[in-house]
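User: Teach me something about this protein's shape.
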Amino acid sequence: MNPNTQFEKYHPKFRKEAWLRSVLAAVSIGFGAAFMAALVTWFLSVNGLWISLAVLVVVTAALSPVFYSKKYRPTVMEDARRLDAIGLKERMVTMVEFAENDSCMVQVQRRDAQQVLSNVEVSQIRMKISRTMIVVAVIAALLCSAMTTVTALSAYGYLKSGEEMLENILPQEPDVYYTVTYIVEEGGYIEGEEAQLVLAGDDAEPVLAVAEDGFAFVEWDDGSGDPARTDVAVTSDLTFIAIFAPLDEEDPEDGESGDSGEARDGEPGEGDGEGSQEGDSPQDGEGDEPGDSTGGKYEEWNQIINGETYYREFLEAYKERLIQQLEEHGDELTEEERAIIEAYINLV
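Assistant: First, the predicted structure itself:
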């Protein structure tokens, strides 16, 4: 005897119950996935309403057949148990277990089960859905609805995004500032802001060390020989000193001739004698420059600090180099940097 033929009229209802359980389990997971999608889009400041709904539909549609085939699909034995649950006292289960047995006792039991089953209507069988499954599905649906509402309102500007909420809740690290100071002890001044407050990692404002009359710029105390400087990526307090040196002045004694010194010694005859006749004066002598009689070269600004390089030649060369750099790279400078360099050139 085939039990399937005995349970055939009840089987469609059992399949509907299995599909309902499968969909309920799948939709619970779908609501959970939609909740996570809404949560992520809320932190990303994206309208996650349609994304969450799409996730819900896709997950539910994909998992429902899986749950049905792997877990809730009804079998003959499960149908027998469901029928016995309405008061058949395990007659159906016994009939299924001894379906291949044709002994007299089994046949008597089978006829009894068939007679009882004939009196059972489909309407007497009530679908059984776990309350736990229903509660889980309802909670997941509520959480998903709330989260999708939040992400939609956030996307339209009615609520803050998740990132903004975290920034308001979590303590913010204060900005760190450092001081950059430029100092001149004597002989010049700083063109630009001498004391600066700079945000950590930012660049300081450009400055220029300008020499006063009678002084020349030597270097900064950190070894930089360029009077214009911009300190970048500041990560600590800094202090720089611009060093200037006085220019050498003309020594008055160097311009006095040996003849005049001898005249002061009380020997005027020698100054008018052979020395004058041999052409000691500038007009008659071999030298054409006024400083030849002193044995040293006279220059208006004398010499620079190291005693070897002529200051005026150095200054003019440096000025020409600045003008050339300004012409070649002027477009890369800010208006403030360009104004500082032009002011320095004009001073020179």
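Now, about its shape. The chain has 13 helices and seven strands. The longest strand covers residues 238-246. If you'd like, I can walk through any region in more detail.
User: That's plenty for now, thanks!
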